[in-house]
Design brief:
150 residues; 5-stranded mixed beta sheet; globular
Length: 150
């Protein structure tokens, strides 16, 4: 069972595992995120949110994805966790953080500015997952993002 596997990893490594996904609604010019957070205490927390910053909205669902990562980093740090694995389906989330991609867009620049505050106080790692491949928690994050947009 996938839940038991995730729980075991979170508990044994004292690491938060967070799935994040983003969405965008062109008619509303809004972007959103959904996230599923698995804690070492074996809690599963679902969160979501949305925004309509016009500069960020130019990046459509990517703005939501980045908002989701920033949310879970701030959440985990605020709860006293110092290790987090971000599971995501958009490769820029990790590549901007690691410097493989240069942050050029408004969204990416704001993301890197935020992440740099946590880079040296948390162990942040990334794992890419395949979108819409049946991964239970990635599908939940996607669903939460879609519902949060309205």
């Amino acid at each position: 069972d996938i839940t038991k596997i995730h729980m075991q990893l979170a508990v044994e490594s004292n690491t938060v595992i967070a799935y994040v996904d983003g969405s965008y609604d062109h008619s509303l010019k809004r972007y959103s995120f959904g996230c599923v957070i698995i804690t070492p205490e074996e809690d599963i927390i679902c969160e979501s949110g949305s925004n309509d910053d016009p500069l960020a909205a130019e990046n459509r669902n990517v703005a939501g994805e980045l908002l989701g990562v920033m949310f879970v980093i701030k959440w985990a740090y605020g709860k006293g966790f110092d290790k987090i694995i971000i599971r995501h389906d958009y490769e820029g989330i990790a590549k901007w953080f690691t410097g493989q991609w240069k942050a050029k867009s408004y969204c990416a620049i704001k993301y890197i500015e935020f992440m740099n505050k946590y880079r040296n106080v948390m162990d942040i790692s990334f794992e890419k997952v395949v979108a819409h491949s049946g991964d239970k928690y990635n599908e939940m994050a996607d669903d939460l993002a879609k519902k949060a947009i309205h």
